[in-house]
Amino acid sequence: MDYYLQFDKVFGSVNPFPYNRSLVQRIETSRRSLEGSLFIDRVLKALNLSQVARSYPPKNENGLRQLHQRICDDNKIALHHKLSIIYYLLLDADGNTSDGDRTAEEFASLAGVPDRYQIFMKGLWLMDGLNFEVALEHLTHPSLISDFADDIITVLVRHAKDGDYTLPLAYYHTVQPSIKSSHALQLLFDAVARSSVIDAFDFSRAHAEQMRRQLFQRLVSVVLEGRPDEETAERALELTSLPFDAEEEQWFKEYLESGEGKKLGAARDTLLMRRIATGHAAPAGEKGTWAILMEGVKTGNGGRVQA
């Protein structure tokens, strides 16, 4: 009988039971934090094992035995996937001991879990434990393909603290995944736009026209919806100084004059800043200087001086 099929050899003594109340509570707390779906849940669902996901975490030894058995008995799952799931369960068990990942690593060696599957599952396990920074040390490994990239980016953006998007941007720039969902793309773009106006501008230009327009106008919105302060004023100056092409110029004008952007408090000041930046005179009935306009954006009170 193959080693991985033998529960007692794989898990050893389960007394005390590794999935004690404390661990189960941590797992369920993480599941709620990840909007109801752990990464192990997503793996199981992708393998058509949603029923197995509902049995995780196991509440007692019999539950763990049944979970192991159901994974092993499914003939539609490739062996390396079965081994990877068991490896993940052993990381749980090791996490409740002082021996590090000894049991999981021993299993991986004896059962022949491919290295890249170990790296990937350890990364997902760390994501499920909300240990994002260490998780990325694994998930950005060059041997991996970008499975679950949309989910990883979504989680990292939503858990960014104090507007610091270092982790999702580091993951994206290192892995360069293809983003499949519009929701994940918007979250990623917002993270880029809040971190760098220029990078977001370049990012928008890498997409086809319809999406490019949406992203460009989203950049304008992200910059101007910020809290009225000196940083927002500086970002507005950076935005209005960008080298727009003819299409972007038109999108910018339409968005702030007649589109959703018209509702933004600094919309008119920003349009005037753009006219000045491109060497055009202010419209009749309005006068302005950089200092007046910047102050208007900074305070949110409008910096125009009526003629």
Short description:
By secondary structure, the chain is mainly alpha-helical. It is 64% helix and 1% strand. The chain is built from 18 helices and two strands.
Could you please describe the fold and organization of this structure?
Helix content is 64%, strand content 1%. The protein is mostly helical. A two-stranded antiparallel ribbon has the order 1-2. Helix 10 packs across helix 12 (182-195), helix 13 runs antiparallel to helix 14 and helix 15 (230-240) packs across helix 18 (290-299). The termini are far apart. Mean pLDDT is 90; it is low at 303-307.
Q: What does the overall shape look like?
A: elongated
> Mean pLDDT across all residues, rounded?
90
Q: Class by helix and strand content?
A: mainly alpha
Model regions low in confidence, pLDDT < 50 over at least 5 residues = 303-307
What summary fits the major beta sheet? 2 strands, antiparallel
Give the radius of gyration. Answer: 26 Å
List keywords for this structure.
307 residues, mainly alpha, two-stranded antiparallel sheet, elongated, disordered C terminus
Question: What are the SSEs and their pairings?
Answer:
Layout (H helix, E strand, L loop, with lengths): L6 H5 L9 H13 L5 H8 L3 H4 L7 H13 L5 H17 L6 H10 L3 H14 L3 H8 L9 H10 L7 H10 L6 H14 L1 H9 L3 H16 L5 H11 L5 H12 L9 H11 L8 E2 L2 H10 L5 E2 L1
Antiparallel strand pairs: 1-2
